[in-house]
Design goal:
The protein is of the alpha/beta class. Helices cover 28% and strands 23% of the residues. The protein binds S-adenosyl-L-homocysteine (SAH). Pathway: Cofactor biosynthesis; adenosylcobalamin biosynthesis.
């Protein structure tokens, strides 16, 4: 099954935070959207109506932790247009009431029940068919899908008006439902992967069909061929549980695109037993039908994903939403223990692999290995993953293991983060406002002589310099030596910014000068920004220290 789009949980005040987090934990990938300056959230917005309308128009399920009336008023202008109707629910801030408002056919009552179960309250269900029959016939459980919603609505109102129905096929969830059944009814609920032309039938398709693709030719309109084959076999495209292809086709862009167009999961591996395979004219395609919905997680493997993300300097609001999203979907999270902890909280089924900071290559290989088995793997770094961090280590491992086909097939992505130099610069003002360079003062992975040469050249070129890894217990003298070199080229009055634990508890920021800078003000959690000849500072209006900046022009 393809995961449903995760809901946006909208909060207006801190009073709702706890309820919001309980709901968030229920839905993979759900983000909390908070009113800017009022609540800490994954996504900030400034105007509620505009934000709700945007979510609604993009068909995103909305769980709004505020009065139902507010939500209705905000969305009212859009309600005449029936092209999209995502589930929309209002939930009381304290979690005491769950009210499904819109999206009856998009599963709003199912969501209301799910959220009510989390909050241990009764959902305010008002849909008559659902109240009468104890289930929404138009919302079958996972593994089944309704063929036609408009038709379904008429079918349910006919039943409410007194019609009876038969059940054709296997629908175990209907056993407990008090439907007006009659074996001779002229209406039927039919559970079948095939299409039906009978207007008196409510068609529900089990996701029991697998499309096996054995070869894809170049410029092959594969999605179109699948559609045609289904049409010939009179099978509904809604019955397709997955596409299955040999492992050797894992990186086929055409195949990936076809699965996207058809909106079905793509799996790779050997063909399983227990299917009836239809004869087809197309030798590269086979349509296979099981007697029950197919659990795709047991069908071969997915193409694994490996995403290398940056957490930003520390606080959650400086992590990019795309990184939060992949974290919420991850099966495995790898990284230096401190950073993995920072990336939490995690769900019970997520596996954490915490390692020492120095085992980067081993961690990179482990990540590729896990992803090559089909898992969704995330490697975390602080700041940006490409700045003195894990992205280069992962690429180095992949480069060295190029003959490893399983590694090369992994869907690898790198997501940027706010690097320590940028986070520190923003706190201080704009010291990186003109040309600058980033240097690591660590001689663990490069000779000290190289660092000295680079320092000299950067100092000579009058670049602003951001020093990463300025000192550590094992590297006590390096910063003093670096400053000695810089002082050969730069005046003692040069502006220097020291950011320590930026975005983390106990953050400190000091704006000083090169002459006044002492290495004992600096530790391994400090970012040192040494200004250029044009970097300057002036007192802040609130009397709280200074603003430092480097003008955009140069003389
Ligand atoms: N990938 C990270 C850098 C890793 S190197 C990034 O892009 O930020 C580690 C060094 O980064 C530390 O020694 C320190 O100099 C700096 N650093 C990382 N996080 C920091 C923070 N929150 N505040 C100040 N400096 C930080």
């Amino acid at each position: 099954m393809i995961d449903a789009k995760p809901p946006a949980i909208v909060v207006l005040g801190t009073g709702a935070s706890q309820t919001a987090r309980r709901i968030q934990a229920r839905y993979s990938g759900a983000l909390i959207h908070g009113l800017a300056n009022r609540v800490q959230a994954d996504v900030a917005f400034t105007e509620l109506s505009a934000h709700l309308r945007e979510l609604y128009s993009s068909n995103t399920p909305i769980v709004a932790l505020c009065a139902a009336g507010i939500v209705i008023r905000c969305l009212a202008p859009l309600l005449a247009d029936k092209t999209v109707e995502p589930p929309v629910l209002a939930v009381a801030e304290d979690g005491s009431a769950v009210v499904p408002l819109l999206g009856g056919l998009g599963g709003v009552n199912v969501m209301a029940r799910e959220i009510a179960a989390v909050l241990q309250v009764a959902p305010a269900i008002t849909t008559s068919g659902e109240l009468r029959f104890g289930t929404c016939l138009l919302n079958p459980p996972a593994g089944y899908v309704l063929a036609d919603i408009e038709h379904g609505k008429r079918f349910v109102s006919d039943l409410l008006a007194g019609s009876t129905t038969r059940i054709e096929g296997t629908a175990p969830w209907l056993d407990q439902v008090e439907l007006p059944r009659a074996s001779d009814a002229n209406r039927a609920i039919r559970i079948s992967p095939h299409v039906s032309g009978n207007a008196g039938e409510l068609m529900i398709h089990p996701r029991s069909v697998i499309i096996c693709v054995n070869a894809v030719r170049s410029d092959d309109p594969i999605a179109e061929r699948i559609r045609r084959a289904l049409l010939e076999a009179k099978i509904s495209p809604l019955s397709v549980a997955a596409m299955l292809a040999p492992v050797s086709m894992m990186t086929s862009a055409r195949l990936i695109e076809a699965a996207h167009v058809l909106d079905v999961p793509l799996r790779f591996g050997a063909f399983p037993d227990g299917f009836e395979t239809l004869r087809s004219h197309d030798e590269d395609l086979a349509i296979s039908i099981a007697s029950h919905p197919v659990d795709v997680t047991n069908l071969g493997q997915a193409r694994g994903t490996l995403t290398v993300i940056g957490l930003g300097p520390g606080s959650a609001d400086l992590m990019v939403p795309a990184a939060k999203y992949v974290l919420s979907l991850a099966d495995d999270i790898l990284g230096y223990e401190t950073y993995v902890r920072m990336a939490g909280p995690f769900k019970p089924n997520q596996i954490l692999h915490c390692t020492d900071n120095r085992e980067e290559m081993q961690r990179a290989r482990h990540a590729l290995e896990l992803a090559s088995t089909g898992r969704r793997v995330v490697v975390v770094s602080s700041g940006d993953p490409g700045v003195f961090a894990m992205a280069a280590a992962v690429l180095e491992a992949l480069d060295a293991g190029q003959s490893n086909e399983a590694w090369s097939s992994v869907d690898l992505n790198i997501l940027p983060g706010v690097s320590a130099a940028l986070a520190t610069a923003a706190r201080a003002g704009a010291p990186l406002g003109h040309d600058f360079c980033m240097l690591s003062l660590s001689d663990n992975l490069k000779p000290w002589a190289v660092i000295e040469i680079r320092l000299r050249h950067a100092a000579q070129a009058d670049l602003v310099m951001a020093f990463y890894n300025p000192v550590s217990r094992a590297r006590p003298w390096q910063l003093d030596r670096a400053l000695e070199i810089v002082r050969e080229y730069r005046d003692g009055t040069t502006t220097v910014v020291l950011g320590r634990n930026i975005g983390r508890p106990g953050e400190t920021l000091i704006t000083t000068t090169l002459a006044n800078l002492h290495s004992d003000q600096v530790d391994m959690r400090t970012m040192v920004i040494v200004g250029s000849s044009t970097t300057r500072s002036f007192p802040r209006g609130d009397g709280n220290g200074e603003w430092a900046y480097t003008p955009r022009w140069y003389e």
